[in-house]
């Protein structure tokens, strides 16, 4: 019987948190994604990103080789010694444990002597390429947190591609190309991780750093550099992880870049150590891998702090009333609002985005029947009504929308509890009214809805004071008072009371002005200066005399 392996370890906080900021030494009670700490202010909760501990992910993978029979030893064969390519009496025999090199030996405990390794058949079919795909599958999304390191016991391949999948092996994208000659092998400029910047972090590069030479003992590793990429945001010794986490929270592409469900190592050409392949002794050429390191953690969308391996499967132990292998959904009955991932930055800078109950019908919502949708506001720890109907508003739809007032004799649950203010658009200052439906009137206007005029004012799309009359405000120069609002001026005069002669100086200027032509020497002024001019032209004034 296999016991579930719990990936939660308290010890991790120390190392994890150390990277982010200084924490008090004394630890108190521990809870989900938070722990009680003693500070100067006493006992307080200290929040941390809700994610499982990082672990050696090679313990939880399934390895597949393509072609399936590419492992050496069936039938048994001899190959040249790893240390000395001229000693060709080593044996690979799948049926003898000591002489077998099965794929599992890429993931066993390393550090003993001699090393244990997987080995391919040798390049017997040269010049047909010796192609091998090694696929590592987790059947679970995981987030990488450290370099992928592949240790070759043969020479490092002269050409290989590291690929990744985010959809359980349905589609694949290259992660990095490796070659002794990038241009020749992949038509790519050779680059190194040091050439990358924050802007080009997601670029896929070809590197020659891990392919050069046919060195047996040293430089046996091929890397995919995760930490150097982290450092572009978190600084040289990853001292500013908060900056990286901030980026991860806001940039999906960046998150996805470090997320995988599968990895594939495509071996395209073995080490030859020379430009020429010795066709007479092809048992010198093969692939041998002693170790593959993949450090990461289950991706639980920041909704779990542990991940269990049970029945050959990794599963997040979801909190926050989320569910699914990656905590990617809200639990049934907890869909009060759309699911969303938590944040790498802990509370209070980030937010847990917990799922809230959805049995928040009219009763729980407390919206007086004007809405059956609520939203939980984490920051305020309160539920508010969404989309209040019937012209209501407010946390519980208990207020009237602006432009409406409360019918005090109606129940708060009445559909007609809010009455349109109905303010006259010309007579009132705004469309709002006070609690008894009185609008705020413009000068000269009166009535609850501002639709009537005070004495001395006349209604003309609102109440206008008298402009002219036949007593004190006479129209001049023969003008005729029209409805007390407007003097009808004879040709040649203008102004409110026809007091201004049209065109005191040049009659020609007037004609031009009338025709709307700017025949006058206009200053090359910016457009902003033109409205006064337009005003003058419109009102038949004389440019420039009226200015
Ligand atoms: C692997 O199997 C295929 C077909 O089953 C065969 O053609 C090929 O020769 C085999 N390769 C090795 C190395 O045994
Ligand atoms: C491979 O080279 C070694 C050493 O030079 C030699 O002993 C061996 O016979 C060669 N094998 C073949 C198949 O030519
Ligand atoms: C390896 O994977 C590639 C695609 O990623 C595929 O084209 C190829 O057929 C696979 N098998 C071998 C042996 O290369
Ligand atoms: C992957 O996991 C799912 C459950 O999440 C399971 O149904 C499926 O059989 C698994 N696939 C493999 C290949 O293990
Ligand atoms: C999830 O729902 C249960 C049951 O209502 C509740 O007790 C628990 O506090 C919720 N968890 C969170 C993190 O809100
Ligand atoms: C206010 O509500 C009462 C009771 O529903 C109703 O009789 C009355 O007509 C309403 N008043 C207005 C102005 O709508
Ligand atoms: C609304 O305004 C009217 C007129 O100014 C006033 O008589 C009335 O008392 C006001 N009502 C409220 C609730 O303020
Ligand atoms: Ca090994």
UniProtKB/TrEMBL annotation:
Subcellular locations according to the entry: Cell membrane
Main location: membrane
Disulfide bonds: 421-433, 441-450, 489-498
Record domain EGF-like: where: 464-499
Gene3D superfamilies hit by this protein: Galactose-binding domain-like, Laminin
GO cellular component assignments: plasma membrane; side of membrane
Entry keyword set: Cell membrane, Developmental protein, Differentiation, Disulfide bond, EGF-like domain, Glycoprotein, GPI-anchor, Laminin EGF-like domain, Lipoprotein, Membrane, Neurogenesis, Repeat, Signal
InterPro entries for the chain: EGF (IPR000742), Laminin/Netrin_ECM (IPR050440), Laminin_N (IPR008211), LE_dom (IPR002049), LMN_ATRN_NET-like_EGF (IPR056863)
Domain annotation Laminin EGF-like: ranges: 421-465
Annotated GO biological process: animal organ morphogenesis; axonogenesis; synaptic membrane adhesion; tissue development
SUPFAM superfamilies: EGF/Laminin (SSF57196)
SMART domains linked to this entry: EGF, EGF_Lam, LamNT
Membrane topology: Lipid-anchor; GPI-anchor
Domain Laminin N-terminal: 46-297
Signal sequence range: 1-19
Protein's job: Involved in controlling patterning and neuronal circuit formation at the laminar, cellular, subcellular and synaptic levels. Promotes neurite outgrowth of both axons and dendrites.
Protein name: Netrin-G1
């Amino acid at each position: 019987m296999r016991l579930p392996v719990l990936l939660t370890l308290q010890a991790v906080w120390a190392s994890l948190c150390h990277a982010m900021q200084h924490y008090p030494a004394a630890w108190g009670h521990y809870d989900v994604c938070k722990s009680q700490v003693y500070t100067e202010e006493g006992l307080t909760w200290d929040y941390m990103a809700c994610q499982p501990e990082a672990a050696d992910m090679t313990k939880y993978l399934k390895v597949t080789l393509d072609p399936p029979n590419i492992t050496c030893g069936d039938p048994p064969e001899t190959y040249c010694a790893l240390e000395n390519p001229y000693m060709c009496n080593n044996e690979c025999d799948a049926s003898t444990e000591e002489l077998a090199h099965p794929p599992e030996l890429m993931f066993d405990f390393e550090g003993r002597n001699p090393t244990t390794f997987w080995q391919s058949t040798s390049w017997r079919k040269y010049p047909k390429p010796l192609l091998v795909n090694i696929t590592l599958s987790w059947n679970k999304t995981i987030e990488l947190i450290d370099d992928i390191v592949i240790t070759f016991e043969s020479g490092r391949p002269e050409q290989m591609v590291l690929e990744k999948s985010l959809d359980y092996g349905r589609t694949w994208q290259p992660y990095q190309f490796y070659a002794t000659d990038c241009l020749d092998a992949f038509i790519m400029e050779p680059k190194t991780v040091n050439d990358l910047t924050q802007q080009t972090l997601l670029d896929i590069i070809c590197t020659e750093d891990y392919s050069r030479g046919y060195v047996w003992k040293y430089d046996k590793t091929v890397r995919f550099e995760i930490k150097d990429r982290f450092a572009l945001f978190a600084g040289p010794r990853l001292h500013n992880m908060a900056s990286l986490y901030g980026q991860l929270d806001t940039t999906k592409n960046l998150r996805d870049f470090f997320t995988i469900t599968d990895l594939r190592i495509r071996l395209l050409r073995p080490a030859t150590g020379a430009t020429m392949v010795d066709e007479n002794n092809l048992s010198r050429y093969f692939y041998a891998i002693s170790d593959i390191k993949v450090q990461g953690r289950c991706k639980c969308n920041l909704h779990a702090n542990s991940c269990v391996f049970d029945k050959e499967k990794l599963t997040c132990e979801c909190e926050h009333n989320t569910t699914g292998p990656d905590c990617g959904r809200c639990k049934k009955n907890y869909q009060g609002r759309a699911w969303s991932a938590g944040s790498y930055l802990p509370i209070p800078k980030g937010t847990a985005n917990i799922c809230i109950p959805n049995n928040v019908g009219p009763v729980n919502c407390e919206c007086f029947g004007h809405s059956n949708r609520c939203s939980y506001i984490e920051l305020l720890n309160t539920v508010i009504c969404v989309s209040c109907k019937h012209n209501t508003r407010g946390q519980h739809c208990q207020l009237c929308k602006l432009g409406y007032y409360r019918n005090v004799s109606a129940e708060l649950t009445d559909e007609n509890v809010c009455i349109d203010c109905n303010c006259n658009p010309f007579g009132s200052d705004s469309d709002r009214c006070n609690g008894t439906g009185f609008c705020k009137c413009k000068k000269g206007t009166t009535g609850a809805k501002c639709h009537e005029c005070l004495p001395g004012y006349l209604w003309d799309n609102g109440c206008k004071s008298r402009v002219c009359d036949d007593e004190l405000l006479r129209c001049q120069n023969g003008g005729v008072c029209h409805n007390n609002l407007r003097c009808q001026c004879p040709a040649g005069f203008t102004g409110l009371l026809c007091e201004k002669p049209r065109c005191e100086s040049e009659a020609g200027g007037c004609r031009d002005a009338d025709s709307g032509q700017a025949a006058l020497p206009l200053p090359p002024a910016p457009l902003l200066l033109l409205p006064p001019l337009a005003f003058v032209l419109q009102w038949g004034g004389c440019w420039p005399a009226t200015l």
